[in-house]
Amino acid sequence: NAGVTQTPKFQVLKTGQSMTLQCAQDMNHEYMSWYRQDPGMGLRLIHYSVGAGITDQGEVPNGYNVSRSTTEDFPLRLLSAAPSQTSVYFCASSYSRQGSGEQYFGPGTRLTVT
Amino acid sequence: GENVEQHPSTLSVQEGDSAVIKCTYSDSASNYFPWYKQELGKRPQLIIDIRSNVGEKKDQRIAVTLNKTAKHFSLHITETQPEDSAVYFCAVGRGGADGLTFGKGTHLIIQP
Known about the structure:
By secondary structure, chain A is mainly β. Chain A has strands at residues 4-7, 10-13, 19-25, 31-37, 43-51, 54-57, 64-66, 76-78, 87-94, 104-105, 109-113. In chain A, the strands form two sheets. In chain A, strands 2, 4, 5, 6, 9, 10 and 11 form a seven-stranded mixed beta sheet that branches. Chain A has a four-stranded antiparallel beta sheet with strand order 1-3-8-7, with no helix packed on it.
């Protein structure tokens, strides 16, 4: 199994540009989520999904959209990039449908917005 | 929402000594308490977790203790080794679909 994969690994955007961060998992997990990690801030939940067709907001959802058309994929869209969105983004999946179980993280995407 | 405080932010110990990292949380309904280790440039990985019906759990050199009354839990690493150097995050789950709330992390440095 590849586990959780993310693309791209690095990305530089200009303010106002849009892009999609890709995330996929091959463990048949129902629960998937997106976190952002900033220095000294830990990991903060952006959006999550408990299954295909179901998404909801986390702690810091503003400026991001998600969709879940299949169990495997959970892309994160930045609508109009801002410097405040410079961060490392981690996708995660869990066997626990409620999210209170081991989170399997992807390798991360390092995003810089100039 | 849930508030998780983690201390210390940096911890330096001599190789072979023990290290203890503490976290407190605010929501008494929380029932899942994992610890993640993150090496530089890598993804977080689960090292140990505990659920609210258990007070202590051990796995070789690492252990987690939970005090639900006081709403705090701790990570204990004994006989520390150079490969234990990393950032450690505690997290709290409430059993709902809104996942985990993470602490801000502890940078553990093992001095040779």
